[in-house]
Sequence to fold (340 residues):
Amino acid sequence: MLFGVSNTYALTPQQKRAKAKAKTEQKRAAAKRKAEKQKAAKLKAAKRQRIKDGKPLLYIYSYDLKTGEPLPATHITAQDLKAKPNKKPKINKPTDNKHARVSKGLPEGGYWVVAAKTGFFTSDTIHYMHKEDEDTVKVYLYPETRLTFTVTDSLTSRPVAANVIVRNNEHRKVMQTTSDSLHSVLAVLLDDRVPFYTIEATAVNYFPFRDTISDPTHFDGVIMSPKKIKSFVLHNIYFATGKTHILDSSEEALNELYRFLVARPQQRIRIVGHTDNIGSDRSNQILSEGRCREVKQAMLMRGIQADRIDVEGRGEQDPIVPNDTEEHRQMNRRVEIVLQ
Fold:
């Protein structure tokens, strides 16, 4: 109290805490402004020093040419145009994750800049005259298009060992390789800015293949047409032992035959069944005929017309190897497709 009068302006505990908090925040704000001012002063001093030393700052940014998005982790290489070929580059490091850039103080003069990143074509080489502080160079990379395709037999859809060459529209090779007869899956990197590519393939006992593609997403693959083929064995077709019932594991083989018939709507075939020599002649004959009918029925269920398919059971009459081992007997147990 003052002169016997109560102090109505005394602060409550809450008001005191609020006032202290506001004062603390003011101090923090002032400290932040001071730090920013000091940082700006240091940057300005560093800039003056770079200019004084003849090494103004160069920024190099990397972008996706297709989307315009920044590309972090892009490897940037920059070198003095006058440098010898074996001299270490002035810049040789990846762009950062925040700005997708690299920076370095370099002497004034001419430089070349190039960028590379997995999944993208290497950028065009940029020639740049560096003379101002905080110069900026932007490099653009175009994403790669990976074309994956197979090399297969037009009759059986099975893989074919072939020599494959891919050329761009300027007739330059972009890939030359050999497919194998087990998997035959190939992949090549294409630039979808190129208007078209040509794919060529050659293989023993097959007609040469050549096709031009303008849209890699609609390429059906390399399909090789065999020379003078009158029949082929339907591989991977399995029956229950001693019975005509087709096992579920034969679905892919049946689908191959179906695709073959769909692709050739005028083609008629004869399904010929063969067995080994285990059992009587009569039982083997009946077995081979029944299995042929089962394969035909599988095609009819898929929509193939009945008048396009004949069946013939040959029993054990036409072995391709002697029935002297289990391996040979397995080779003789076969379903053959004869073109008519």
